[in-house]
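To illustrate the input format used throughout this study, we show a single complete record. The first block contains the structure-token representation of the backbone; no residue identities are included at this stage. The design step must infer an amino acid for every position from geometry alone.
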């Protein structure tokens, strides 16, 4: 009885939770390697070494702890359905080789029965690929179906090459129970990691954007400026300033001014996204009521036409300010281009700012391309 209780703990809880934690660390290692190492062959080599080390550890641990090999296909299945299908396919075929290698080190296995291991893996891979073609079945359902069958059947196929081990039917029941613990433990840990990653990404994005308008902030602008200067290409800068914003604040209040800045930004983002495409520009809040736009691979003539049309649209737009409709808002803009290999983006920024100054001195509510006087 004590042996059954011990195996219940080992097979149904301890070993599954250990494998679940190994899967999570393998996933984190996979992500880190992809960021740190650029060469695909080096990535593949490092990932292969780690996974096969984990797999050997599971084989040795299960054999010595419970007396037979189990859960050895967990890495192949979880990688195939959660992390990387290519690695999952390779692991499905490589797992029987690893099992035979481990048993060879322990005690010479039955070579004639090695074919059962290979046939099981080939059959498993074929079923996985065929199920992928069936769109009416959800991916999670496919995984659950293959997973449960494999977890229960794989110990038998593994031990056919090692005839010295006999195990009771209740041990397979414990493996079935443990497979659910493994699945639940992995799902729980994986969701925790994903939640933490999402929080980190959200914090990173919020630190890069202006909290009021949602545009990129000045900190991000300075960082991007350094990056852009290191990677020369055809870029243009537009400096935009809302006309008479101080007077608007004095008349309507600072809260109304915040409403104006928010809606003004939303209008710019929507219009620029439709006209030039979101991949060709970045909008920054430069400070106060001043904004900066960096355009990529767009002619200065098209930028002028776009901003001129935007200016007209905003001037006729009825802003919803403190539950009141306010129209007649205008802006002034200055534009300068930075051709690849001709000066820096910082120089273009300075000239765009001068063009904005020219527009404001010339009566505001206009778009100007920089020209020397």
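Output of the design step:
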């Amino acid at each position: 009885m004590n042996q059954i209780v011990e195996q219940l703990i080992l097979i149904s809880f301890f070993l599954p939770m250990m494998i679940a934690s190994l899967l999570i660390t393998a996933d984190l290692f996979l992500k880190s390697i992809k960021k740190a190492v650029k060469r695909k062959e080096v990535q593949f080599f490092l990932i292969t070494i780690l996974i096969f080390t984990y797999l050997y550890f599971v084989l040795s641990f299960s054999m010595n702890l419970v007396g037979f090999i189990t859960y050895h296909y967990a890495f192949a299945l979880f990688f195939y359905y959660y992390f990387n299908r290519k690695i999952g396919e390779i692991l499905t075929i490589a797992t029987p080789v690893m099992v035979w290698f481990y048993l060879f080190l322990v005690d010479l296995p039955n070579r004639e029965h090695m074919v059962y291991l290979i046939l099981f893996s080939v059959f498993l891979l074929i079923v996985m690929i065929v199920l992928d073609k069936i769109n009416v079945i959800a991916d999670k359902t496919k995984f659950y179906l293959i997973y449960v069958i494999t977890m229960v059947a794989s110990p038998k196929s593994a031990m056919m090459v090692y005839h010295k081990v006999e195990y009771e039917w209740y041990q397979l029941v414990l493996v079935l129970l443990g497979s659910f613990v493994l699945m639940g433990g992995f799902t729980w840990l994986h969701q925790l990691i994903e939640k933490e990653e999402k929080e980190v990404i959200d914090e990173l994005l919020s630190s890069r954007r202006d909290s009021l308008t949602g545009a990129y902030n000045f900190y991000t602008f300075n960082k991007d400026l350094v990056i852009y200067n290191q990677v020369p290409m055809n870029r243009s800068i537009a400096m935009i300033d809302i006309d008479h914003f101080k007077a608007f604040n004095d008349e309507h209040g600072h809260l109304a001014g915040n409403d104006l800045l928010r809606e003004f930004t939303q209008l710019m983002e929507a219009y620029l996204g439709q006209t030039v495409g979101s991949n060709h520009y970045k909008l920054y809040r430069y400070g106060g009521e001043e904004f900066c736009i960096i355009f990529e691979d767009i002619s200065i003539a098209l930028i002028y036409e776009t901003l001129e049309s935007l200016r007209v649209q905003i001037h006729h737009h009825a802003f919803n300010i403190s539950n009141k409709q306010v129209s007649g808002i205008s802006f002034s803009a200055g534009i300068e281009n930075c051709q690849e290999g001709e000066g820096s983006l910082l120089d273009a920024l300075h000239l765009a700012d001068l063009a904005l100054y020219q527009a404001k001195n010339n009566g505001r509510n206009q778009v100007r391309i920089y020209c020397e006087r």
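Structural context for interpreting the output: The chain has a mean pLDDT of 85. The longest helix spans residues 169-208.
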